C-alpha cells in the first residue's frame, strides 16, 4: 500500500481537463495538514450543462472514498436494477432544470445583436437604439449622425465579447461569472462605458434549460462501489436481498467520465453481507491471480471459482485501475 501511495504522489498531473478548472477541497489529516492522495480517493463533480450551447457550469466538487449506488430507482424495493451498469446509469442520470442563466449564451446573444445593429448602422439611415445612445435632445441618433469613432467603439465591444465567447467555446466549460464585479478588467469596463453601459452587471441575461448530472472528474486508482441494499417498505427499513450482476472488467465512459479518456478497471474484491437490516456477518471474495479467487470469512480461507464470485450478492465491489 505504501508503495502504491508513493507511486500516486509522484505520478504525472491529472489528465482530466475539468480537474484543473473545478475548485476542490482536499482531504486533511487529523492535525490539519494536507493528506497524501489515497488510492481510494476520487473526485466527483456535480455539473450543470446548458442544453443550448452544451457548456458545463461547475457547481461543486467532492472527494470520495466510495460511490454509493442504489439497487432500485426510488428506494422502495420496486423494479430493482439487474446489473451494475444499470445502477451506474441511474447514478449519472440527468435532471432537467428550467430557466437557468447561461453566461455563454448571454455573450453569444449580445455579440449577435451587435452584429445586426452594426450592419444596420452601416447600411441604412434608420434610427438604431444601440446601447441606449441618444442625441442631446433625447431622440435616437440615425446612422447618418454616427461618427467613425462611434462605429469603432461598437466594433471594439463586439470584438472584446467575441474573444470571451471563443475562450469559453474552446474550453468546453462556462467559467464566466457575469455577476462577479471582477469579471471584466478595468480596460474592458471602459469599453463597456464608451458604449453606454455603465455597469456590465446590468446587461440582459439569456436563460436556458440545463441538465444536471454527476461526473467522475478524477478517477481513483481503486474504485469502490458501495451497494445500498436498504430500502423503505411501509415506512420500515429492510434489506433488499437480490442479486446485482457485475463484470470482472469495467470500462468507464460517458456520461460518468466525459472529460477524460475512457478508463478500464479490473475486479479485485467483492464484499458480501450475510444477514438482515439489523445485523449480520461480512465475508470477502479476493482475487489472487487473474483466474484464482479465494473466499475469506474470519480466519477461514478457501479457494472458489469465478462462477462462485459472480453469484455473490455484493455489498461492496472493488475495482483496480488497469495499466494504461
From TrEMBL:
Keywords of this entry: Hydrolase, Protease, Thiol protease, Ubl conjugation pathway
UniProt keyword annotation of Protease present: yes
An annotated GO cellular component: nucleus
Keyword Transport assigned: no
GO molecular-function terms, A-Z: cysteine-type deubiquitinase activity
EC number(s) from the headed UniProt entry: 3.4.19.12
A matching Pfam family: UCH
Organism domain of life: Eukaryota
Cited Gene3D superfamilies: Cysteine proteinases (3.90.70.10)
Catalysed reaction, written as an equation: Thiol-dependent hydrolysis of ester, thioester, amide, peptide and isopeptide bonds formed by the C-terminal Gly of ubiquitin (a 76-residue protein attached to proteins as an intracellular targeting signal)
Biological process according to GO: protein deubiquitination; proteolysis
Signal sequence, renumbered to the chain: none
Similarity comment: family membership: Belongs to the peptidase C19 family.
PANTHER family in alphabetical order: UBIQUITIN CARBOXYL-TERMINAL HYDROLASE, UBIQUITIN CARBOXYL-TERMINAL HYDROLASE 30
Name of the protein in question: ubiquitinyl hydrolase 1
Taxonomic source organism: Aphanomyces astaci (Crayfish plague agent)
Amino acid at each position: 500500500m505504501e508503495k502504491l501511495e508513493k507511486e500516486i504522489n509522484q505520478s504525472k498531473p491529472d489528465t482530466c481537463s475539468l480537474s484543473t478548472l473545478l475548485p476542490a477541497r482536499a482531504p486533511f489529516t487529523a492535525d490539519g495538514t494536507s493528506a497524501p492522495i489515497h488510492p481510494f480517493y476520487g473526485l466527483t463533480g456535480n455539473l450543470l450543462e446548458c442544453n443550448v450551447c452544451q457548456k458545463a457550469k461547475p457547481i461543486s466538487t467532492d472527494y470520495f472514498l466510495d460511490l454509493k449506488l442504489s439497487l432500485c430507482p426510488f428506494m422502495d424495493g420496486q423494479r430493482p436494477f439487474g446489473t451494475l451498469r444499470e445502477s451506474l446509469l441511474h447514478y449519472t442520470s440527468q435532471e432537467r432544470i428550467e430557466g437557468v442563466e447561461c453566461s455563454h449564451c448571454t455573450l453569444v446573444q449580445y455579440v449577435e445583436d451587435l452584429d445586426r445593429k452594426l450592419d444596420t448602422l452601416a447600411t441604412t439611415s434608420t434610427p438604431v437604439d444601440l446601447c441606449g445612445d441618444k442625441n442631446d435632445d433625447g431622440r435616437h441618433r440615425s446612422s447618418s449622425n454616427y461618427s467613425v469613432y462611434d462605429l469603432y467603439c461598437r466594433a471594439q465591444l463586439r470584438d472584446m465579447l467575441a474573444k470571451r465567447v471563443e475562450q469559453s467555446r474552446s474550453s468546453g466549460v462556462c467559467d464566466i461569472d457575469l455577476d462577479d464585479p471582477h469579471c471584466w478588467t478595468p480596460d474592458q469596463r471602459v469599453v463597456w462605458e464608451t458604449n453606454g453601459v455603465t455597469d456590465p452587471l446590468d446587461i440582459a441575461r439569456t436563460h436556458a434549460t440545463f441538465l444536471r448530472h454527476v461526473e467522475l472528474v478524477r478517477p481513483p486508482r481503486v474504485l469502490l462501489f458501495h451497494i445500498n441494499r436498504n430500502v423503505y417498505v411501509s415506512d420500515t427499513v429492510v434489506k433488499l436481498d437480490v442479486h446485482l450482476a457485475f463484470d470482472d472488467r469495467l470500462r468507464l465512459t460517458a456520461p460518468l467520465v466525459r472529460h477524460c479518456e475512457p478508463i478500464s478497471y479490473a475486479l479485485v474484491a467483492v464484499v458480501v453481507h450475510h444477514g438482515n437490516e439489523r445485523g449480520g456477518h461480512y465475508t470477502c471474495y479476493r482475487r489472487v491471480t487473474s483466474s484464482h479467487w479465494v473466499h475469506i470469512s474470519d480466519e477461514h480461507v478457501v479457494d472458489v471459482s469465478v462462477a462462485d464470485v459472480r453469484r455473490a450478492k455484493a455489498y461492496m465491489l472493488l475495482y483496480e485501475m488497469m495499466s494504461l
